[in-house]
Structures are given as structure tokens and as C-alpha cells.
Amino acid sequence: MLTLQGLYKRYVTTDGTPGGGVLGVSLEVAEGELFTLLGPSGCGKTTTLRCIAGLEVPDRGTISLAGRELFNGQRGVSVPMYNRDVGMVFQSYAIWPHLNVFENAAYPLRVAKRRRYSESEIRKRVADVLGLVGLGGYLDRPSTQLSGGQQQRLALARALVREPKILLLDEPLSNLDAKLRDQMRGELKRLQREWGVTAIYVTHDQAEALAISDRIAVMNDGLMMQLGTPQEIYHEPNSEFVANFIGKTNLLPCTVDIPPSGDGIGRVSTPAGELLCRFRSPTRTGQAVSIVVRPEVVELSSINGRTKAGPNDFPGTLVSETFLGEIVEYEVDIGGAINLTVRCGPLADISPGSAVVAHLPKAAVVALVDSAQEQSDAGSIAHRDKRKDE
Questions:
Q1: Cα 111 to Cα 115: distance, rounded to the nearest angstrom
Q2: Domain region containing 61
């Protein structure tokens, strides 16, 4: 449905220094997919969305929607926003305060440039889409009398009423309180599935991205760091940045003792001892790597007077526990060499000061190339793009 090739948009500050943007993003979004651009503030995700919408003009690259070229820097093609067949929901919703619910939803049809809609068409389309988002009984209500969640639904209805080929959502839930945000996540996903519309969703909220996305592109400093399903991004991070940004994690420096064999399992040396783990790519003996261990995969138990029982078992001392509702977060000191975060159900037989054993299942521990190499690679890409500009 959507293809970006080498999309480049560089902002420059008043003193001439680079001020963010995107540095050669390429991706494809399938029809009916809910695709998320995820990253910290200033990473380039909203710039990418605005380029797709036609609100920003890229410096170079191509954008194609359903086989139609919307932008081609080399050929001088740049289709205006009103002619791109996209719907957009902004972070602020941009609801017209002087119009009621019906007229807010009808506005895109009344001002459409590509075709004229009869009054009967407008009434039917607006009634259908407001019914879909749960506002069927609010047609005549002033938009100023809607709650935050209702305003979000109205903004979505207004974007869908023209039946766009693609729906662009720029952090649409960030203005809602936590409970309503959780509720609206499910509603957004349900509506997108029922309508069958292709959607690109921008957010900096990792939990939100994992909950609603078919695929996620993690961005940082204008670059796309990793692209994959929520499960791949969470369980198979390809860099320290992605591992740290997506959820809470334990990230430990190590050295390769035995490179991975046919099953992908190798052995590393950690500050607390040897550890079997899974490798995503070939490595060599002595190479510096980092291992990623999610807090919920660690198995914690009382030591009961025994010493280290087997591979990937590490004796330690429970330092602290934090109640988080359905789970408890424990901090474990492993011989003064590693501080390990563990998340699990409450354990009745341990408390701060207790001797414990932390077991790290080898299949759930992932080894990554060290961060210095990762940063060097990212720097090479940025330097190459800078030279192209010059």
C-alpha cells in the first residue's frame, strides 16, 4: 500500500547546524496493516509521517501510495496534501469548537476538492462512521461538550469519513489519562480492523506500540534502527538502543568464550561467571558483546543452603522488592559484580537480605554486538549522508 525509498528530510537551525529529520528511511507497509513508527522525541518519526501526508516536502527520496507516486525528488513530483487520499488524526485532535459533532465529521466531505458529495451522501457517510466509533447518538451535540475520549473518536471519524487509502495517526492517545488511553488502544485496533484501513501510527510509548501494531519500525536520530513484529522487536533486539528503549531490560557486558554452534547457543564470560546464551549472528572468541535479559524471564528462588546448581544459575542476595500490583520487581546482587532486575509474582519465602538463586534460561538470553560497534555503524551512515548533502 505504501512504499518509502531513501526518504531524506534534514532540518537546519538558524545558525546552520543540523536540527533533526530523517536520514534515508526506506520501508513498505502492506494493505490493511497497522504499522507503527516508534522512538524517542526528535528521532524523525513525526517528520516521516508529515512527509507522507504532504505537510513536509522531503529533500529527496520517493513516496508511493497504492502504486501512485506522491513524491519523487529526482523527477520533481510532489502531490499536494488534499490530493493524496490520506486521513490524519493529530495529537491535539483539532476539533472545530464552533461546529457540532455531525458538522465536524462532515467537514472533509464539504470541502473535498477531488469530487462533490451530495447532502444525502454526506448524511449517510457521516451517520455510518459516527455509528462505527460509538458517537451515533451525538450528532447534534456541540463538540465542546465531548469528553477527551469522545473527541478522540470524533477526530478518528473525521479522518475516516472520506474512506482514505491510508490513515495517519500522530500520537492520538497522548492527551488521555492512563486508564482511558488503555481502553482506546483496543478501540483503535478494533476500528482499524473493522474498517480494513491501512494505518501508520506514531508514538513514543513502547507499551502502546507493542499492544496495537502488526509491525514496528524503531527510529533514533533519523535512522530506522530495527523493523519487525512486536514479538521480534521485544525478544530479538538487534542493538543496545532497541533493547533499552523497548521495555525494561538487564544489559550486561560480556566476552565470548565459545562462539555459537549449530543451535545458535554459545558461552560468554560475565563479571559473575560463565553463561550460556543465544547469539543472533556469528562471533569470534574474545569478542566483546552485551547480553540482553528481560526481567520476566529470570527464574528466582530461595537458595536453601545450596551452592550454584548448574549452568546459568547464579547465587546472590535479594537487595530490594517493589510491589507493582500484579507483579513484584526484585533487585538481586550477584556477588557484587551484577545487579539483576527480576519481575515475577510475589515470592513468599524470600525478602530483602535473603540468599537467592537467579536462573537465566539460555534460550531467553540474547547476545548483541557491543554498543561501540553499533554506534560506529550508525555514525558511518550519518557521515555518508552528510557527504551526499555536501
A1: 9
A2: 2-235
pLDDT digits (tens, 9 = 90+) for 311-349: 899 999 999 999 998 899 999 999 888 999 999 998 878
Element (H, E) at 343: strand 338-344
Domain boundary residue, one of 184, 209, 235: 235
d(CA 307, CA 212): 44
Contact at 8 Å (CB) between 255 and 269? yes
Q: What torsion do the CA atoms of 296, 363, 251, 185 make, to the nearest 10 degrees? A: -50
Residue 154 lies in a domain: yes
Number of domains in the chain: 2
Nine-digit cell string for 307: 551452592
Does residue 139 share a domain with residue 26? yes
Q: 313 — phi, psi (to 5°)?
A: -100, 125
**The whole model's pTM is what?**
0.85
Q: CA distances (Å), 39 to each of 46, 173, 201, 234, in order?
A: 10, 16, 12, 14
Q: Within this chain, do residues 303 and 352 fall inside the same structural domain, yes or no?
A: yes
